[in-house]
Design a protein that fits this description.
Layout lengths: L1 H17 L22 E6 L12 E3 L8 E6 L5 E7 L3 E4 L5 E5 L5 E4 L11 E3 L5 E4 L5 E6 L1 E4 L9 E2 L3 E6 L3
Antiparallel strand pairs: 1-3, 2-11, 3-10, 4-9, 4-13, 5-6, 5-12, 6-11, 7-8, 7-10
Amino acid sequence: MNRFFRTLASVFVLLAMVGPQLSAQEQGTIQATATVISALSVVGSHNLLFGTVTPGINKSVDKSTAADAGEYTVTGTPIAEITVDFSLPTNLYTADSLGVMLIAFGFSDGSFDDGTGGGQSAPVGILNPNAISTTNIGIGGVLRVWLGGMALPTISQTSGDYSGDVVLTVVYTGN
């Protein structure tokens, strides 16, 4: 029995020597935080109006003409950078889609004001509606965008009311 106790004591001594070594530990904690910016809102506030069009005679609408130019109101986080991207029609159609009239947009047919310019008649900047542009929402959280264009009726253009969707897509860049 003595031998048994000596063996058992030796096992305990060995286990104590190879057991886990304890050492001092320190910890630090940080917070993960994020601020979610306000959602963007884009409202078409005025249609692009060509009015009465005569067959064979092109009709232009200037972006600075308040009564006729298309207008969008963009609201979001003040001073946030955004991209402005138009989806432009190449044609206008009658309600039954039998009448088709060409429409075109020039490189300077768009403009914008962030509240620091003179509005539609003296905007802050010009936009090329045929390309994606980058700008900032105004300090008041509003950006106004205007659009002109040209209707190109043929000499034998079918009479009637024509329309087509002009879509403005605005996206935060994250900058």
